[in-house]
Inverse folding.
């Protein structure tokens, strides 16, 4: 139950940032230190399991509680972290007795220990010196300190697990001024670990008045859209510039590799890469970035503010809240500390904190664990940092604290030392590039990676695999006299408790004769090429012996074969295969088959616990074949020509792109966004960047852990936690008279669950506390008691269909409900080719980099003000008013910009914002809620999955005749959209752009125990395109035709579709012709055919996808424009800037119509106060509609000015404004299709385009390369060609993620298992087409468009359907080599697993 507002106000002052906190609570009976306070002095408030003290580099799940006085144990960011607190009245069954014992033992050790813990931590922030108490720094994350204490908001928090790069900062030892800074994830770095370092944030690199070259170029080159990732991109690229100091400029591939740890959901990456190449490959600009200290890059323009003190409390007290922090430099000192403090937890770089939660259960509601008594940072132990190596053939020793990036660079250096008898170092370096992102590799240690693999059996350690293959040995022990030298084979099962991993010894290359050579190959299958964990990985080393006379066939003297990802806790050595290979002649098919068969014992051990079992089993054999092919080619074996490419190492190229927009330019020119530079310098503010308000509180949801009936909510442990203000449930809403439904229908979701728990992740309660970290910890202490449902949950679309779990009792039939099944059967009988099948497409998470974020506060007059990241401020304001029983005029919702939206912030922010508003109203204090990525994904549904069970027919020449079938859409546990919207794929979408005269379809909206699905970029139309393209691919296969022939033959012309969609001014054919001409499609198709004829195992595919996208009329948004006396122009409008450039276009429109300088126009943030005429931003027409309204307002103002200034021509803008003194130079506009000087009416219209995708698939590695994407889109006369081209590019790449890598997965119980960056993989820069060209159709202004324009943000996402169709073609080509001519079934997403399964390989037919 929440404390009431009066009780809350009587509490001590709340923290503002991390500067203040309440005094520690004393024992109520004695007045002396409480057990909780004694624990605060001695125990850690950070994540670690005291039973695993050697988790270097993987210190799991730290919570940056900053100044808070409560210990936090084994917690991670978000309510899924694991935590424990120790209030005086803590129940025995929650560990009070254990705590008492641990405190007494720790106090005893405190008296005995000799080594000195750090008293203070000193570092610099952007060149400014800082010193903080080590006890506080030992449980504060760098990201929290930067944002809350230094107020450096450019360091963004998105995933909070080191997977997105938004929080990247630069780190350099203070004593090594000539060393290059390295990029690190601030969200994983302990502040105490920054002792002795220089930290540079994006603010230290430049500002809008004096930006660095990289900041300026990315901003001007359209390298930023929503901008939430931009600061991280800048810092990461700056690190590369520093690294190149004294050497050659980085290559394009090196630039791409540098960005492997950074995610951008908006841009499609190529503009960022192009901007980086322009700067980093220009010696003059590169030298400027390398001159002086890194803080000089911005011309020392950053002005440090007075940091909010990192103090324990606001009063004078001496108690400390964090663990003691040790940072020894000598190995002997480290052992001494471990001996004196057996409970000490060891850390290296803490990079594993973002990963471990996926393996130790903390992301799935694991029980609490005890905290350590102290922390020891082993990253400075000199002997653990040593490296010893000389030549490629000799032994190598690496300290356990050596970062993975240094391991990679040493391997590359050894490879570059000249011709050697081994290729091991080339293989190791290439493999390590695929381990994590650059930020993690820069500081994550060898020892930390190995220890996590030792303690976490399911963690697929690439380092463990490589070192096993290299036959390395581990030096580990408790003291100098108790050292062990453990083989990698034994290490995985070793008890490492209380031991320190010191170094890794890699033996020399086995002794080789003059005619022998060691050939090493490693492979890794992952959901994404870079920064993705292994599904299966393998290491192959062959000692190949050439005949002494050079005339014989090379043979394998010995082999070493390891597989990881088959058996938990270890890599598996394929000894039987090694024996089969010993003495085998390279290029001998019989020897190959003998070795493949010898893998049966390995395949048999594949543990289903990893999932994807059949896929992993197939890869075991294909990897061996690939390795033998490469070894044969490297040894001079003459292979069949069809194997020449498969025998080469995989090739990946950095993307290049070209935009051609000249023919679509009009009165509006390409202008980068006015906020672009501020986004690149970190000065652009997002919702959680706004200044903290006095008395601000922080909320975190308690989420349901099971499906069933909520019987009670127990929260005494949370409510007794120091700093917790309230635990709010549905009962509290009822007691206050608040509503609990977003809309007054029984099918809509509740804000907080009252009884029926429909899905795991449903909101049960809201914890409100004095800091976000305390709220997140307390949320884990709340117990939601749920009686399990009597029946198994319905999770998948197929399950819902099988159980007939539908929202609609009868199907929606269309397009003509009167069309009978008998009538359709007649049409099918008239056709020559008829096929039946099923196609589907899955979920897609929006992955807006800024999660759902808001801050609600009482306005002092009985109302509520809320700042919120949304696409629909007025909808949120109205919801809040309805729930609280206020007038709509009493609620104001504001937003300036959002860190992405893609449809996910139209309706989905509503429950978060309303909950925050209710808490603020109840407690009479500001309440902020920022969802962690994990919780955001658990609570919020993504794109709707669909299944299409179809029957489709055509004539022999490919002319389409008829389609019938059933369409199923996944709605989820409640409606996010109106019921009819869930089946409106029938309307305008399922036909894609193909003329099919006869239709009869049934549509069902499915109900299941998953979150409500919602709008996502290209809703309805994207699934419609994918499903129909799949059906046409199937039909074309049956007809013996090329799918693109069928598509081209049946393109819509002008007219009206069977679904009543008008196709006036149809430019579809022009787009197709243009795209085909730009890539020379016919010649490219012939090249693909020839390629597939002469290559086995690696195949290419080519597909052409025309697309259309129905747009509603661009109207209905209100704008207000005011010209100020000084000539500045203020535009207030009702659209939301979410990265699409809406503000830029309105700014240009105002400047154009008023004939004012562009730089004098300012577009304000959006507020619900603009009133009734304010719709949600979505559907890509908001920019046009708001431009129209701004134009109308400006036309009115301009008319008044012209009337006054008839004889004042030739004057400057400022002079004209001055001459109009006394006139009302302000007006509003609400466009409803009026015809004006610049506007020509508004009506629904259709956007057109064509995409051509060229792909290549290696079936032995199951790796996809998108070689080329060619897009031609009809933008009419673009409102801003540069911004619109960026929208088209980003849309295609987002679609590419949907069809290739972005896979949703639920457990049988309904737990989302892909709720973070570790398992859910959006495209990174390596996923982008290697050649990526976009052209706008020239000279085709839209007659009724706003300034002749058309929308750009949504239609091009449909173009990614061409990539999926191209992959079907590539898979079919693989299947054909095995004699399989059946149609290829491949649905979205076509993951690496789905692709290989579709190919139906037969390893028994492998041959040379």
């Amino acid at each position: 139950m929440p404390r009431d507002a009066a009780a809350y106000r009587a509490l001590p002052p709340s923290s503002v940032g991390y500067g203040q906190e309440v005094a520690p609570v004393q024992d109520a009976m004695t007045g002396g230190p409480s057990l909780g306070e004694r624990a605060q002095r001695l125990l850690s408030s950070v994540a670690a399991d005291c039973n695993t003290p050697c988790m270097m580099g993987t210190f799991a799940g730290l919570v940056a509680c900053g100044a808070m006085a409560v210990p936090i144990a084994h917690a991670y960011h978000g309510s899924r972290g694991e935590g424990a607190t120790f209030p005086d009245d803590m129940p025995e069954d929650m560990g009070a007795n254990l705590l008492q014992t641990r405190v007494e033992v720790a106090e005893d050790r405190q008296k005995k220990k000799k080594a000195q813990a750090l008293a203070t931590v000193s570092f610099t922030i952007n060149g400014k010196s800082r010193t903080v108490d080590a006890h506080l720094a030992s449980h504060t994350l760098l990201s929290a300190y930067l944002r809350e204490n230094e107020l450096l908001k450019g360091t963004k928090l998105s995933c909070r697990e080191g997977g997105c790069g938004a929080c990247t900062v630069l780190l350099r030892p203070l004593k090594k001024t000539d060393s290059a800074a390295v990029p690190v994830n601030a969200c994983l770095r302990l502040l105490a670990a920054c002792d002795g370092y220089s930290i540079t944030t994006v603010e230290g690199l430049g500002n809008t008045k004096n930006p660095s070259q990289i900041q300026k170029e990315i901003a001007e080159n359209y390298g930023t859209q929503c901008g939430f990732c931009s600061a991280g991109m800048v810092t990461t690229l700056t690190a590369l510039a520093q690294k190149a100091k004294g050497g050659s400029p980085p290559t394009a591939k090196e630039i791409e590799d540098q960005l492997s740890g950074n995610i951008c959901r908006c841009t499609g990456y190529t503009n960022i890469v192009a901007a980086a190449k322009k700067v980093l490959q220009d010696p003059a600009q590169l030298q400027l970035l390398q001159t002086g200290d890194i803080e000089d890059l911005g011309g020392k323009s950053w002005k440090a503010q007075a940091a909010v003190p990192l103090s324990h409390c606001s009063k004078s007290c001496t108690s400390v809240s964090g663990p003691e922090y040790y940072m020894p430099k000598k190995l002997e000192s480290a052992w001494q500390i471990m001996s004196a403090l057996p409970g000490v937890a060891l850390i290296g770089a803490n990079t594993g904190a973002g990963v471990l939660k996926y393996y130790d259960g903390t992301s799935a509601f694991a029980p609490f664990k005890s905290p350590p008594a102290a922390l020891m940072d082993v990253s400075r132990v000199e002997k653990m940092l040593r490296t010893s190596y000389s030549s490629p053939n000799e032994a190598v020793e690496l300290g356990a604290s050596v970062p993975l990036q240094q391991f990679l660079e040493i391997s590359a250096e050894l490879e570059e030392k000249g011709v050697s008898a081994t290729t091991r170092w080339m293989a190791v370096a290439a493999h390590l590039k695929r381990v994590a992102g650059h930020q993690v590799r820069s500081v994550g240690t060898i020892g930390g990676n190995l220890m996590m693999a030792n303690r976490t059996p399911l963690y697929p350690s690439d380092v463990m695999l490589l070192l096993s293959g290299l036959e390395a040995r581990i030096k580990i022990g408790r003291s100098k006299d108790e050292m062990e030298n453990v083989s990698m084979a034994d290490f995985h099962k070793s008890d490492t408790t209380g031991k320190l991993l010191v170094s890794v010894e890699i033996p020399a290359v086995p002794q080789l004769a003059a005619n022998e050579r060691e050939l090493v190959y490693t492979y890794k299958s992952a959901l994404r090429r870079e920064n993705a964990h292994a599904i299966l990985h393998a290491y192959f080393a062959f000692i190949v012996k050439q005949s002494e006379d050079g005339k014989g066939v090379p043979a394998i003297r010995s082999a070493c074969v390891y597989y990881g990802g088959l058996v938990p806790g270890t890599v598996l050595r394929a000894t039987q295969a090694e024996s089969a290979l010993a003495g085998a002649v390279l290029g001998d098919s019989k020897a190959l088959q003998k070795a493949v068969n010898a893998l049966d014992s390995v395949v048999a051990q594949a543990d289903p616990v990893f999932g994807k079992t059949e896929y992993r089993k197939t890869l075991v054999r294909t990897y061996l074949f690939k390795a033998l092919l490469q070894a044969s080619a490297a040894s001079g074996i003459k292979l069949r020509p069809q194997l020449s490419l498969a025998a080469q190492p995989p090739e990946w190229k950095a993307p290049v792109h070209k935009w051609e927009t000249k023919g679509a330019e009009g009165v509006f020119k390409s202008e980068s966004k006015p906020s672009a530079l501020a986004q690149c310098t970190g000065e652009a503010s997002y919702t959680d960047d706004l200044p903290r308000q006095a008395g601000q509180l922080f909320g975190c949801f308690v989420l349901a852990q099971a499906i069933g009936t909520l019987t009670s909510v127990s929260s005494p442990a949370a409510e007794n936690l120091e700093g917790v203000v309230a635990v709010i449930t549905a009962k509290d809403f009822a007691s206050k008279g608040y509503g609990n439904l977003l809309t007054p229908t029984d099918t809509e979701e509740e804000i907080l669950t009252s009884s029926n728990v429909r899905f795991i992740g449903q909101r049960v309660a809201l914890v409100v506390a004095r800091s976000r970290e305390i709220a997140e910890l307390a949320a884990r202490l709340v117990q939601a008691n749920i009686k399990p449902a009597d029946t198994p949950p319905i999770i998948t679309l197929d399950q819902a269909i099988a159980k007939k779990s539908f929202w609609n009792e009868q199907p929606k039939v269309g397009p003509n409900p009167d069309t009978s099944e008998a009538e359709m059967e007649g049409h099918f009988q008239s056709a020559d080719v008829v096929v039946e099948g099923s196609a589907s497409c899955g979920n897609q998470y929006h992955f807006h980099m800024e999660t759902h974020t808001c801050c609600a506060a009482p306005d002092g007059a009985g109302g509520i003000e809320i700042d919120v990241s949304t696409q629909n401020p007025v909808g949120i304001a109205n919801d809040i008013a309805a729930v609280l029983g206020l007038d709509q005029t009493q609620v104001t919702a504001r937003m300036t910009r959002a860190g992405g939206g893609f449809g996910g912030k139209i309706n989905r922010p509503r429950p978060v914002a309303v909950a925050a508003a209710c808490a603020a109203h109840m407690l009479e204090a500001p309440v902020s809620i920022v969802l962690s990525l994990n919780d955001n994904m658990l609570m919020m549904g993504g794109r709707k999955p669909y299944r299409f069970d179809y029957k489709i027919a055509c004539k022999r020449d490919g002319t389409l005749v008829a389609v019938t079938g059933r369409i199923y859409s996944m709605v989820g546990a409640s409606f996010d959209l109106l019921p009819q919207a869930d089946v409106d794929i029938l309307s305008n979408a399922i036909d894609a752009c193909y003329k099919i005269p006869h239709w009869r379809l049934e549509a069902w909206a499915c109900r299941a125990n998953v979150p409500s699905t919602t709008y996502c970029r290209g809703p309805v139309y994207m699934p419609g395109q994918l499903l129909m393209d799949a059906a046409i691919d199937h039909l074309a296969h049956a007809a013996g035709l090329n799918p693109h022939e069928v598509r081209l033959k049946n393109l819509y012309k002008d007219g009206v579709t069977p679904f009543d969609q008008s196709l006036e001014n149809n430019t579809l054919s022009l787009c197709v012709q243009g795209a085909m001409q730009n890539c020379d499609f016919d010649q490219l198709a012939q090249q693909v055919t020839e390629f597939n004829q002469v290559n086995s195992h690696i195949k290419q595919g080519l597909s052409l996808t025309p697309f259309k996208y129905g747009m509603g009329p661009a109207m209905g948004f209100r704008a207000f424009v005011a010209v100020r006396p000084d000539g500045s122009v203020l535009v207030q409008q009702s659209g939301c800037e979410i990265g699409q450039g809406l503000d830029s276009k309105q700014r240009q429109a105002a400047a154009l119509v008023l004939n004012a300088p562009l730089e004098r126009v300012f577009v304000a943030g959006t507020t619900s106060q603009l009133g009734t005429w304010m719709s949600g931003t979505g559907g890509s027409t908001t920019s046009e509609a708001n431009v129209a309204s701004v134009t109308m307002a400006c036309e009115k103002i301009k008319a008044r000015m012209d009337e006054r200034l008839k004889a004042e021509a030739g004057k400057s803008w400022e002079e004209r404004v001055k001459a109009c003194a006394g006139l009302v130079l302000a007006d509003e506009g609400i466009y409803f299709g009026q015809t004006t000087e610049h506007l020509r009416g508004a009506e629904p219209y259709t956007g057109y385009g064509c995409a051509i995708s060229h792909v290549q698939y290696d079936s032995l590695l199951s790796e996809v390369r998108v070689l080329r994407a060619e897009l031609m889109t009809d933008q009419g006369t673009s409102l801003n060609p540069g911004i619109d081209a960026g929208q088209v590019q980003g849309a295609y790449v987002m679609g590419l993620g949907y069809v290739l890598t972005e896979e949703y997965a639920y457990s049988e119980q309904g737990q989302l298992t892909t709720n973070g960056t570790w398992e859910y993989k959006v495209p990174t820069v390596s996923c982008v087409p290697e050649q990526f060209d976009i052209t706008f159709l020239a000279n085709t202004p839209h007659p009724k468009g706003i300034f002749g324009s058309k929308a750009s943000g949504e239609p091009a996402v449909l173009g990614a359907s061409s990539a999926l169709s191209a992959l079907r073609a590539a898979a079919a080509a693989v299947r054909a080599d095995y004699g399989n001519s059946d149609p290829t079934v491949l649905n979205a997403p076509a993951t690496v697993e789905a692709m290989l399964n579709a190919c139906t390989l037969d390893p028994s037919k492998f041959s040379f």
